[in-house]
Specification:
Elements (H helix, E strand, L loop, with lengths): L54 H8 L6 H5 L3 H8 L4 H15 L6 H10 L4 E2 L4 H6 L4 E2 L3 E5 L6 H14 L8 E6 L6 H11 L9 H7 L1 E4 L4 H9 L1 H8 L1 E7 L3 H6 L5 H22 L3 E5 L1 E6 L2 E6 L2 H5 L4 E9 L2 E10 L6 E8 L2 E4 L6 E2 L14
Parallel strand pairs: 3-7, 3-10, 4-5, 4-6, 6-7
Antiparallel strand pairs: 1-2, 8-9, 10-11, 11-12, 12-13, 12-14
Helix pairs in contact: 3-4, 7-8, 10-13
């Protein structure tokens, strides 16, 4: 059959012709891409729009490898018209519209989505810093990446050790588990981990052997290169399944990238960062576990101005779901503070803290507060 095309040329282009050999696949440059969802993968014989899509039509389509709704919606009107032979162009359009309507995702409302969020809570891991847990809806969220960023010496590694202890003791979604701790800076300390555990949760280690059991549940990996880091993450799926991993920690995400790649290797560095980010996102979402990473800071220069910012740039920053910045002497207030500087659900809160034998604790001499709009972002590592 011939048909006028909307572009140059008087007849149907070769690319629009259908191979009529039974079982032949059809490729078309104007193929409509649909999301690979379970509904789009439904077989045509299971669809309910039988008033427009007849059984004999389905049998003809199957002769050309069109078995699912996705297969059908990937064809043009003219493809389907030539396969069916007897159908009119308007009839083909009605078939495609009916199938698309049946498999398309349904609309929702903000109220429904809010209810789903509360009913299907993904879980969390508490931080034991009450003001922080309060705004984070319980703590470090499962299925997401949480980043701790700040200068050296403010307690990022201490925070990771503290979360390791909490992860071993708490029950995320009802099941105890192990911690997978990736130590890129060789700062992990078993002695400090034990000290935090005994000082903060003495009641949990009264029985003989309980401390040893907790320590054995923290699996430490110390890669020596970005390649080893990528390989470790890509092989982590088996450890998560077989070892009941409930928390992944990387301390720190930036150290190897900054030391291995020079100024002339930015493209290669970004490729490796993207691979690490996508793998971490996949692990967090697929297994519904929290991922905690620490990040360093760098100096950003814009004209005559300069300020501190998270390392690794915007490509990595977009992968982070929640960012908590560590600062000293914020807005003229002396002492250390944690600040929720990026979150899709939590308000920006500043929590004063200090580091003790028990790890990070809320500073009782200073008040946690919500940040006001007049407090600029530059200098607090939040511009990304």
């Amino acid at each position: 059959m011939k048909s006028k095309s909307s572009g140059s040329g008087s007849g149907m282009e070769q690319s629009e012709r259908v191979d009529r050999r039974p079982g032949a696949a059809v490729a078309h440059p104007n193929t409509v891409t649909t999301s690979t969802t379970s509904r789009a993968s439904l077989f045509l014989r299971r669809l309910k729009c039988t008033d427009v899509l007849k059984r004999e039509d389905i049998e003809k389509l199957e002769g050309y490898n069109v078995h699912t709704a996705k297969d059908l919606l990937s064809r043009t009107v003219w493809d389907v018209h030539e396969i069916l032979g007897t159908a009119t162009v308007e009839g083909v359009r009605r078939i495609l519209e009916a199938v698309a309507k049946e498999v398309a995702p349904t609309c929702s409302t903000a109220r429904i989505e809010l209810r789903k969020n509360w009913v299907n809570r993904r879980g969390y891991l508490r931080t034991c810093l009450e003001p922080l847990d309060s705004v984070l809806d319980g703590g470090i969220r499962a299925g997401a990446i949480t980043e701790i960023v700040g200068p050296a010496g403010l307690g990022k590694t201490q925070y990771c050790l503290q979360m390791s202890v909490i992860g071993c003791l708490d029950r995320l979604e009802g099941d105890g588990g192990r911690i997978f701790y990736i130590d890129t800076e060789k700062k992990f300390s078993g002695e400090r981990l034990s000290e935090i555990a005994k000082s903060r949760f003495p009641e949990s280690f009264l029985e003989r052997g309980s401390m040893r059991e907790m320590l054995e549940r923290v699996i430490v990996q110390a890669p020596n290169s970005t390649k080893e880091l990528v390989d470790t993450l890509q092989q982590l799926q088996g450890a998560i399944i077989g070892g009941n991993i409930v928390l992944i920690i990387i301390d720190s995400i930036a150290s190897m990238f900054r030391s291995e790649f020079g100024p002339n290797e930015m493209v290669k560095r970004q490729e490796h960062i993207g691979r690490v980010a996508s793998t971490l996102k996949s692990l967090a979402e697929s297994f519904n576990i929290p991922v905690l990473v620490t990040n360093q800071i760098t100096t950003k220069i814009e004209g005559s101005q300069s300020w501190l910012a998270p390392a690794l740039g915007t490509a990595w920053s977009h992968a982070v779901n929640t960012r908590i910045t560590m600062s000293a002497d914020v807005s003229g207030q002396p002492g250390r503070s944690l600040r929720v500087s990026k979150s899709s659900f939590a308000p920006t809160i500043i929590v004063p803290y200090h580091v003790t034998r028990r790890g990070l604790e809320v500073d009782p001499t200073r008040q946690a507060r919500f940040a006001c709009a007049s407090e600029g972002t530059k200098g607090l590592y939040t511009e990304f």
